[in-house]
Every structure is written in C-alpha cells, then in structure tokens.
C-alpha cells in the first residue's frame, strides 16, 4: 500500500511512512467519532429542551427493549423507530459538518440560473438547507414526528437532509457513525433519567449556533432509573 502512495504524482514524490499512515488513520477515525459525539450532545440538548420528546422516546425505548435488561446489544439497534426520527431531526438542525467538504467544478455549469465557471470551489450549506422554509414546515422547531411516514433518510439520496454528504465523496463511516450514536443514546436513555443541575432551567441552555459543537458545554445530572421491581 505504501508503494502505491509513494509513487510519483503530478505534485512530486511523497514520502509517507507507516507511522504517517497510522497517524492519518487515527485522525480520520477521531474526526468521525467526534462527529458522533457532537451529534449525541445535540440530541441530549434537544431532548432536554423538549421534555415531551424525551418522555416519549424513553417510554418507547424501555417498552421495546423490556424492563430488565442488563446490557444494550447491537441486536437492539433499529428496534426503536422513534429514536431514528429523533436522530434525523437532530441531524437536520445540527449537521456536524455544516458545509460538507468543498467541491471543485470540472467544467462550466449552470445551476438554477447561475453560471458557475470551471475550477470554482463550491460549498454545500446543509445547515441552511436544514432550516429552509421551502423544504420544511416550522423549520426552527424540533419535531421528530415530521419524519413519520416520510421516505427522507440521511443516506445521500434526499438533498434536503445531508448530514453524511452525498455522492462519491460522501462519508464512508456512516454505518459505524450511526451505530456508535444509536448504541450511545440507547444506553444513556435506557438506564438513566436526566435532569438539569440545581439552579439551571431550560432557558439557560444556549440556542443552536452555526458551529460544530456547543459554545457552552451541556451539563446534565444522571439518575439511575429504578427497576420495575423496586417501584412495586
Ligand atoms: C455521526 C457520525 C458522522 C458524521 C455525521 C459524518 C459526516 C461526514 C461528512 C458530512 C463528510 C463529508 C461528505 C461530503 O462532503 O459529501 C464526511 C466525510 C468523511 N468521513 Fe464521516 N461522519 C461521521 C462518522 C465517520 C466515521 C465514524 C468515520 C471513520 C471511521 C468517518 C470517516 C470519514 C471520511 C474518511 C470522510 C472523507 C471521505 C472522502 O473525502 O472521500 N466518518 N463525514
């Protein structure tokens, strides 16, 4: 593999060692894991801001998975339909890579009446598309139910929702990213109830902003949920 990378290119000869490769691979994985972590924080932020959605989601998770589980496993993924809707709605409002990766035109093209020259750099603003009233009803509101009975998914075929991009350069880590996200959320929502720290209210949680992470860290207090036997 290193022979392939180190062959002469139009940019000259590269000298990449196995140490460089390992460092690059860990950067790639870390960037992907970071996108998942950012999405998990935004999901918990929106759930805390919307107690109705939090209650509905936790009830659905606990009813679907049963009341006495000791571990969440991969078989539990995709069983909870509402979790999928909540994740889509979080991606719509808080795409972790709001401008995707830049593209360069290979020839002059016309898009919606605009003449775009050859070699122009294009950026796709998924943050703005996710909040565009032409695509979404009440776009600023967090309503996971908007995806109920809708065919829109985040796999790159529906241009109004592109958290993983689209086309040949779309995210190759999508399946891993979604698995990490769903496993993480199922665990923290099945086993724990969440409240704001003493003295904090929903109004103290910052609004969404055009940045990858949150400006102010989200602080929540977990309480291990009581088992159904203890409740009797
Ligand atoms: C929730 C999790 C993730 C999100 C939201 C996400 C999102 C994205 C986005 C938006 C792009 C740019 C796509 C485009 O411009 O069309 C991208 C590219 C990429 N992602 Fe992810 N990603 C996630 C997880 C991961 C993971 C876990 C990995 C690897 C282990 C990964 C590896 C990559 C790589 C290598 C690229 C560059 C692809 C290329 O340039 O051809 N991602 N990701």
UniProtKB/TrEMBL annotation:
Q: Which SUPFAM superfamilies match?
A: Cytochrome P450 (SSF48264)
GO cellular component annotations of the record: membrane
Subcellular location per UniProt equals:
Membrane
Q: Which residues cross the membrane?
A: 20-45
Residues that bind heme, according to the entry? 171
Topological category with respect to the lipid bilayer? Single-pass membrane protein
Q: Which UniProt keywords are present, listed alphabetically?
A: Heme, Iron, Membrane, Metal-binding, Monooxygenase, Oxidoreductase, Transmembrane, Transmembrane helix
Q: Which cofactor does it need?
A: heme
Q: Which GO terms describe its molecular function?
A: metal ion binding; monooxygenase activity
The record's listing under Gene3D superfamilies reads: Cytochrome P450
Q: Which family does it belong to?
A: Belongs to the cytochrome P450 family.
Entry protein name: Cytochrome P450 71B8
């Amino acid at each position: 593999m290193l022979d392939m990378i180190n062959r002469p290119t139009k940019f000259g000869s590269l000298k990449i060692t196995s140490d460089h490769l390992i460092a690059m691979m860990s950067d790639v994985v870390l960037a992907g894991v970071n996108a998942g972590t950012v999405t998990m924080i935004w999901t918990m932020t929106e759930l805390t801001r919307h107690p109705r959605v939090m209650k509905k989601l936790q009830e659905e998770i606990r009813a679907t998975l049963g009341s006495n589980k000791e571990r969440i496993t991969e078989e539990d993924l995709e069983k909870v339909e509402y979790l999928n809707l909540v994740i889509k709605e979080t991606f719509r409002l808080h795409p972790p890579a709001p401008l995707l990766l830049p593209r360069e035109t290979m020839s002059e093209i016309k898009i919606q009446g605009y003449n775009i020259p050859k070699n122009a750099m294009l950026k796709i603003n998924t943050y703005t598309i996710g909040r565009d009233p032409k695509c979404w009803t009440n776009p600023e509101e967090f309503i996971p139910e908007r995806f109920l009975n809708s065919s829109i998914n985040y796999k790159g075929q529906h241009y109004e929702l592109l958290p993983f991009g689209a086309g040949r350069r779309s995210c190759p880590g999508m399946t891993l990213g979604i698995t990490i996200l769903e496993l993480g959320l199922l665990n923290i929502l099945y086993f724990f109830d969440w409240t704001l720290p003493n003295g904090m209210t929903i109004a103290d949680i910052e609004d969404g902003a055009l940045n990858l992470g949150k400006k102010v860290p989200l602080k929540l207090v977990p309480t291990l949920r009581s088992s159904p036997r203890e409740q009797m």
